[in-house]
Design a protein that fits this description.
0% of the residues lie in helices and 59% in strands. The chain contains no helices and 14 strands.
Length: 171
């Protein structure tokens, strides 16, 4: 038996995804807790859409040789070439310092969250031109990008202990 403990994991995928916990497919648009998925011992799994998932204080019990959590491409089966993320055979996983940006794709409003202080957020066009820069000095921020054209942008987030660049699709 393995126990996966994910304090916070919020991720968005560019491709449509499917999620399996202990080989049970989850349904997009559903919140899973211990009441509707026996593998979840506490916390919750929010399978928001086929592009976005949040695991919040989730403790997941996995038993058997096929135990684990898999994120795989919608177009394929959960085979090695289609698996985007697989968590198995590990006693504890924590993503406390993870930086998240959601929703992606977006219509305009974008949320950024991290466990640490966000020092600076910069938005760049696909050609590398800086479009905007903000200094939130907080651990969360909501950017209004509704004034931007539909395109692909890069968002660089400089936090106190980590930096990350996201590819953002503006619809």
């Amino acid at each position: 038996m393995y126990c996966f403990s994910l304090t916070t994991l919020h991720t968005a995928f560019a491709d449509q995804i499917r999620v399996r916990i202990n080989k049970q497919d989850l349904v997009a648009g559903t919140v899973y807790t211990s009441s509707n998925l026996s593998a979840i011992k506490s916390g919750s799994v929010h399978f928001i859409s086929q592009y976005e998932i949040i695991l919040q204080d989730a403790v997941i019990e996995a038993t058997g040789s096929n135990a684990g959590i898999e994120f795989y491409r919608e177009s394929g089966k959960a085979e090695n070439d289609n698996v985007l993320l697989k968590i198995s055979g590990t006693s504890h996983i924590k993503a406390d310092n993870a930086i998240s940006l959601f929703p992606n794709p977006t219509d305009g409003l974008v949320n950024i969250q991290t466990a640490n202080l966000i020092n600076k957020v910069s938005v760049y066009s696909i050609s590398g031109q800086q479009i905007m820069e903000v200094y939130p000095e907080d651990n969360q921020l909501q950017l209004n990008l509704s004034h931007l054209d539909a395109a692909v942008y890069y968002v660089r987030i400089d936090a106190a202990t980590d930096n990350k660049v996201f590819k953002l699709i503006k619809k």
